[in-house]
């Protein structure tokens, strides 16, 4: 079941994360964060001119809010509803990109690669901390963003223990 967090201009302009913090902190306190994997989405109520052609990720105030959110919860992609496009939108908030009418969003390739690898390392550590299997989750996330993770990367992240 999808969970939608509504963001209004007050939250965005004041960099107020409380609508998200309230939910996530409750899930963390209850030890139930894993129950909300890939269920979170965002709905915007932000004033724009009717002829404003920009996507949400092209509005500086909204991008700044998401940058702050990412600092607070760097493992948030775990919760985002990937099937509904929330991972792609979240990535667009944090990675330089352009929109093409025929091809859709086009991320800066180097920036996207850095973003994907940073999220892989962050999520790997976080998933280990909460005791969830991580390899298939990380491979799936990377694949959603156009990357294939080789098993040798996981060998590097999980070297055999030396005795």
Description:
This protein is of the alpha+beta class and about 160 residues long. About 50% of the residues lie in helices and about 10% in strands. It contains seven helices and four strands. A hairpin with a 3-residue loop joins β3 and β4. α5 runs antiparallel to α6. The relative contact order is 0.11.
Write the layout of secondary structure elements.
Elements: E1 3-8, H1 9-13, H2 18-30, E2 40-45, H3 60-72, H4 86-94, E3 97-100, E4 104-107, H5 109-129, H6 135-144, H7 151-157
Parallel strand pairs: 1-2
Antiparallel strand pairs: 3-4
Q: What is the arithmetic mean of pLDDT?
A: 92
Rounded to the nearest angstrom, the radius of gyration is 17 Å
Give me the oligomer status.
Answer: single chain
Runs in which pLDDT lies below 50 for 5 or more consecutive residues are: none
β-sheet strand percentage: 5-15%
How far the N terminus sits from the C terminus, by CA atoms, comes to 46 Å
**What does the main sheet amount to?**
2 strands, parallel
Shape: globular
Category by helix and strand content: alpha+beta
Share of residues in helices: 40-55%
Query: Largest beta sheet: what is the strand line-up?
Result: 1-2
Total strand segments: 4
Determine the number of helices (DSSP H or I, runs of at least 4 residues). 7
